[in-house]
Amino acid sequence: MSPLRTTSLRRRVTLTALLVLGVVLVALGITIAAVFTAQAERNLNALLTGRVQLAQQLARENVAPANLVRRIDARGVVVSLRLPSGDTIGAVPSGERRQVRAVLSGPPRIDGAELVLSADTALLDGAERTLVRVLVIGGLAAIAVTAVALLLSMKVALRPLDRMTGLARSIASGSRGGRLSPSRPDTELGRTAEAFDEMLDALEASEERMRTFVADAAHELRTPIAGVRAAAEAVLELGPEAAPEQRERLELLLVRESQRAGRLVDDLLDLARIDAGLRLERGPVRLRELARTQADRLRLLAPSLTVTVSGPEVEVTADEGRITQILANLADNARNAAGDSGTVEFHCGRYGTTASVVVEDSGPGVPEADRERIFQRLVRLDTGRGRASGGSGLGLTIARGLARAHGGELSCHGASFRLTLPCE
């Protein structure tokens, strides 16, 4: 992932706003200048056309040529009338001018006379230059005023971000519990602040769970480690004259406590792998065959226990070792709950694109209020009430984590546990 560009937001917003304003002002100036030029051209053409029409009317009325020139004369317009006799009345145009020529008709003295109207375009060009100058100066002034206003108001506009930064730094320094609590979560800043609060809730909840888990794990490890230490010290204190039975009993206790600590450490490592993203070695797995293997194991551990396997053979693509770990945990819990003289049943099935293994026993079952809690870490229920008695209290947590890593689920339904896995 490329690094986040962290240029000044105040500078970025200011420059963006000024750039947009500049583009708008330039477009507006060009539009105004074009409209002004077009309108000036239309006005000039209308003026010259009107003078020509007036001259035609005066000629038909037999107005004297000198009087005609005087009457159609206008500011900015030079009139020149060349009579049929060759005489010219009026000024001769010079410089850049817009000219309109017309031939007059009327009495003999003016019939066929050529009328030339010349408009001085210098005034029009000057007006255009003045307009452009005004637009440029006004645009620059507007940009300058906008820049100053943005710089002064940006601090107020970015105050919510400054508050987010302050809260993040206070949390990094160890403060907890602070929240932004946006008044309007439907705005951009409101949604950002709400997501920020949700992130803080998740982080603090995760931190609390981790703190509790570490404390509980340390407490759980303390017992087997204390047993190992006590057994080891007792073995060392035995003299050469100690009875072999006593030494063997202490050594057996030392081995059992070491195994207990080792199992807890293995469970903790499994949880860490699940949290970090477990890597599965997938392949074809026959669920009924795995269930039958666990049933045979239970019969060896508790010969008086009645164990049955039912349902069709179902094949899924999964990690066989991890699925075996799940079923072994469920089988051991079922045996503990049912007792050596109870019954345990494995039932395999398939429903559409989902395969399942249900492990049910004759025990008292898990109360409805505890059916989700037993999947939490280091939770152990009383022996007479259900599944998680004995052990480290991590078995069901690991089993559900492994099931979900496969895209499946592990759920409790009283005296039965259902493992569901996707299948083709």
UniProtKB/TrEMBL annotation:
The membrane-spanning stretches of this chain are: 131-154
Record EC number: 2.7.13.3
**Reactions performed catalytically:** ATP + protein L-histidine = ADP + protein N-phospho-L-histidine
Q: What is the top-level taxon of the source organism?
A: Bacteria
Provide the HAMP domain boundaries. 155-208
Domain Histidine kinase positions:
216-424
Identify which top EC class this enzyme belongs to: transferase
What GO molecular functions are on record for this protein?
A: phosphorelay sensor kinase activity
The record's GO CC annotations read: plasma membrane
Give the subcellular location.
Cell membrane
The main place the protein resides is: membrane
Q: Which UniProt keywords apply?
A: Kinase, Membrane, Phosphoprotein, Transferase, Transmembrane, Transmembrane helix, Two-component regulatory system
* PANTHER family per record: SENSOR HISTIDINE KINASE TRCS (PTHR45436:SF5), SENSOR HISTIDINE KINASE YKOH (PTHR45436)
Q: What is this protein called?
A: histidine kinase
